[in-house]
UniProtKB/TrEMBL annotation:
Entry keyword set: ATP-binding, Kinase, Nucleotide-binding, Serine/threonine-protein kinase, Transferase
Binding residues annotated for ATP, in chain numbering: 51
Keyword Kinase tagged: yes
Name the UniProt record assigns to this protein: Serine/threonine protein kinase
Comp. bias regions, Basic and acidic residues: 312-325
Lineage: Bacteria, Pseudomonadati, Myxococcota, Polyangia, Polyangiales
Natural source organism: Sandaracinus amylolyticus
InterPro entries with a match to the protein in the record: Kinase-like_dom_sf (IPR011009), Prot_kinase_dom (IPR000719), Protein_kinase_ATP_BS (IPR017441), Ser/Thr_kinase_AS (IPR008271)
GO molecular function, one term: ATP binding
Pfam families per UniProt: Pkinase (PF00069)
Amino acid sequence: MSEEGSSISRGPAPGDVLEGRWRITALLGRGGHAGVYRGQHARLRYPVAIKTLSVDPRSAIADDLRSRLLTEAEIGALVRHPNVLKIFDVGSTSAGEPYLVMELVEGETLRERLDRGPLTIAQAVDLARQVLAGLSALAQHGIVHRDVKPSNIMLKPGRRGVRAKLIDLGVARRLRGNAGGDQGEGFLVGTPSYMAPEQLRAQLVDPRADVYSLGVVLYESLTGSVPPRPTFVERYAVEPELEIDELPPVRQKRPECPPWLESIVKRCVAVDRNARYQSAAAAAEALAVLARDLGLPSGARAWVEDPTRAPIRTIDDAGPDERTTRHIRRGGGSRRVPWQS
């Protein structure tokens, strides 16, 4: 084992109790720098999910990972909404690794669902309304998610239909002052295929950036794909004249899409943020009016699968790379730090 590898803990094991409160019961999954476990409160026994970091403290990204986890804890504890993942606690393991205790969601991500094909129109509208409700709750606390994408939306089935939950608040930011200005943030953060133009240009963002990202998610939910962005997305930040294209019309791939729904998607993903809905609440209201006027089913009725109403996904419609990317620019250079979703 290398010197670097020997300094990384394998994480807690089933049966371990973290700080006398949270009992680990099973490993759910492990990524490059984190593990997610099923757990329960040691005394009350209600189920939870527990995320721990496993990173060499000497690593160049160690501080960024810890900062991201703490940001997720602080924001998740602040915002209580049925469409935002609940955060219960944060602490440190016996090995000194930070951990996060979260709501346990039994279900799948929207990414996993879209890998089987697009949603029906009713499902896509119901999903978008729920995610917008969660984004509106964040905005009420002055928070921009900055990484809305299918792999950051959990789908929890239940008797009243599918509940969508926003997860991974690690790159969210609190607004300070006039966040809609043109002053650059100094780095890019987000997932290129879903980033608003102002994010791509490393400008300060406001909730309209989340409206754009949700619009792309709605577009993909209806069509099965989104156009790829250039690999070197940092070009947008250093080449202001580089144009950012509008998305192709939804009806090119989904002819039965109602024109009003197409217009809502188009407004959400407008390159000019002043042309978008100015809040998640405004976009949600537009979808609510559309759903009422078209008589679209909602709740459990919207999520009754009907394979005749949604096109089959083709190999050419493969989903985009959903790794969250942070390009930090210092002294004219840049470094790319991928976060595995």
